[in-house]
Amino acid sequence: METIGVMKVSRNYQVTIPFNIRQKFPVREGDLVRVVYDDDEKVVKLYLVRNESG
After folding, report:
1. Residue 5 in contact with residue 18, Cβ under 8 Å?
2. Using only C-alpha atoms, what is the Rg of the chain?
3. What's the confidence (pLDDT) of residue 52?
4. Which domain holds residue 15?
């Protein structure tokens, strides 16, 4: 099942992950996230790389 959220891009190209997405994506402040653009699907994908806090 898909979870959908809408984000606004700031002047510095920053986005805030919506609450309903953060509930399913275990990311916390300080974590590193890999961002991948999938040319075939034409979508941006986020992957948790490392948790800085442990």
Report:
1. yes
2. 12
3. 62
4. 9-48
User: Distance between CA 6 and CA 15 in Å, rounded?
Assistant: 10
CA distance 54 to 44: 26
Helix, strand and coil content of the chain, in percent to the nearest 5, comes to 5, 30, 65
pLDDT of residue 16: 92
> Is the confidence at residue 25, as pLDDT, over 80?
yes
Q: In CATH, what number is assigned to the domain containing residue 31?
A: 2.10.260.10
Please state the pTM of the whole predicted model.
0.69
* Per-residue burial over 6-44, b = 16 or more CB atoms within 10 Å of its CB, e = otherwise: eeeeeeeeeeeeeeeeeeeeeeeeeeeeeeeeeeeeeee
